[in-house]
Amino acid sequence: MAQCSKNQYRTSLPAPMFEKQDINMMSILKGCIGKDLSKITMPVHFNEPLSFLQRMVEYMEYSQLMRIAAEQTDPINRLKYIAAFAVSALACNWDRMGKPFNPLLGETYEIERPEFRCLCEQVSHHPPVSAFHAESPSFQFYGSIYPKIKFWGKSIEIQPKGTLTVKLPKWDETYSWNNPNCTIHNVIVGKLWMEQYGTIEIVNHQSGLKAILQFKATGSIHKDLHRVEGTILDGNKKKLFLYGRWTDVLKCTDYDSYEAYLKDNPNRFKRSDGSKSPNSESPAHTPRKVFSKLNSLKMSSFRSLSIQDNDVHDQPHDKSPEPETVEMNIPKSQSTYSIEIPNSETLWTVDPRPESSANYFSFTNFAMSLNELESHMTNLQSTDSRLRPDIRKLEHGDVEGAIIEKNRLEEKQRDTKKARKSKNGGNDDWKPRYVKFICNAFTLVT
């Protein structure tokens, strides 16, 4: 396993984020509406210098929550910390608008930290499936992700298909859940912002306890931006109420305290399913103005903007009104910070990002270290993500070099597949090195 020495990790990248170039995006985007972007080769200018395997490891940034869960003697308390871990795993996504590099077939990534060790492998190319297994003395965490990414004209929808599973050996318990969906808004014009939305159900398969978490869609008045709330159930009996924001905090309180607070503050929480993003579009509803903008779209106007950009000169030059593009402005959260239900306990709070994060793809401290290649890492597998030259060049600000290497690696992958199939009578007999395809008894249907 790759292990960093003395727990000292870098807090920045070798070079700041590159400047976007003026390239016409029409040829890339006009044929992508409604299609799965995970199957389409995108230019390096969309990428951040991490592989998707490394991005998956960011689930583990708050892995101590699983250890804390395993230390609890009450099964309800164990579940509430597993729920906090499920929410915390999404926090790294906030303001991360760069697309990770698609892993090559057979690519691996391994890492060891004081709280865990983890191994990832790209087990399928079409469809792209990434598998991981993390463990420590107190827990196991594993799963596979098949990300479906669709461009709808004004937004990008990400569906992280796959079941995530946590095992606590001390208690002989297994928990599983699926991640919520994500939408990135203002892809064409305006400042990018994202929301997670949908309902996830975390199930303890031994006791039957459930945590049902609702990631709220933003809504027209933006009251529910980033808001998550839910309930821990024992059968039909509601035990705990969970609430917070997936970007920064999750709290819990007993259900009686929540009901009393709700009675005194009826407008603080609204009961809705929140399963769909009201700002999502489909190809049938993509306005003509979106297509007209695609014809003249340049990369510099397409993506020099992020949630942290506030300069006037970064605003779109087209001042004509667009009633269809009501989401041009970034919505502001109005509620969660002001909510403090009596008898609440804070389960998780996000760690602050580095001051220079905006200059380095909005990476967290944890993300900054994931592609770090130290002198003592002499036993890495040749397939490790850290050794990919295209990612390494992008990390050092060499965009042109990254483009060349990315194209070379993708062409090599295609040639290798052709050779494999030719050798085996048209059949592709490739098999993962570390991961076996088995039926997971806890797989959830989505």
UniProtKB/TrEMBL annotation:
<dbReference type="InterPro" id="IPR000648">
    <property type="entry name" value="Oxysterol-bd"/>
</dbReference>
<dbReference type="InterPro" id="IPR018494">
    <property type="entry name" value="Oxysterol-bd_CS"/>
</dbReference>
<feature type="compositionally biased region" description="Basic and acidic residues">
    <location>
        <begin position="406"/>
        <end position="416"/>
    </location>
</feature>
<dbReference type="InterPro" id="IPR037239">
    <property type="entry name" value="OSBP_sf"/>
</dbReference>
<dbReference type="GO" id="GO:0005886">
    <property type="term" value="C:plasma membrane"/>
</dbReference>
<feature type="region of interest" description="Disordered">
    <location>
        <begin position="266"/>
        <end position="289"/>
    </location>
</feature>
<protein>
    <recommendedName>
        <fullName>Oxysterol-binding protein</fullName>
    </recommendedName>
</protein>
<dbReference type="GO" id="GO:0006869">
    <property type="term" value="P:lipid transport"/>
</dbReference>
<keyword id="KW-0813">Transport</keyword>
<keyword id="KW-0446">Lipid-binding</keyword>
<dbReference type="GO" id="GO:0097038">
    <property type="term" value="C:perinuclear endoplasmic reticulum"/>
</dbReference>
<feature type="region of interest" description="Disordered">
    <location>
        <begin position="307"/>
        <end position="333"/>
    </location>
</feature>
<comment type="similarity">
    <text>Belongs to the OSBP family.</text>
</comment>
<keyword id="KW-0445">Lipid transport</keyword>
<dbReference type="GO" id="GO:0005829">
    <property type="term" value="C:cytosol"/>
</dbReference>
<dbReference type="GO" id="GO:0032934">
    <property type="term" value="F:sterol binding"/>
</dbReference>
<feature type="region of interest" description="Disordered">
    <location>
        <begin position="406"/>
        <end position="427"/>
    </location>
</feature>
<feature type="compositionally biased region" description="Basic and acidic residues">
    <location>
        <begin position="310"/>
        <end position="322"/>
    </location>
</feature>
<dbReference type="Pfam" id="PF01237">
    <property type="entry name" value="Oxysterol_BP"/>
</dbReference>
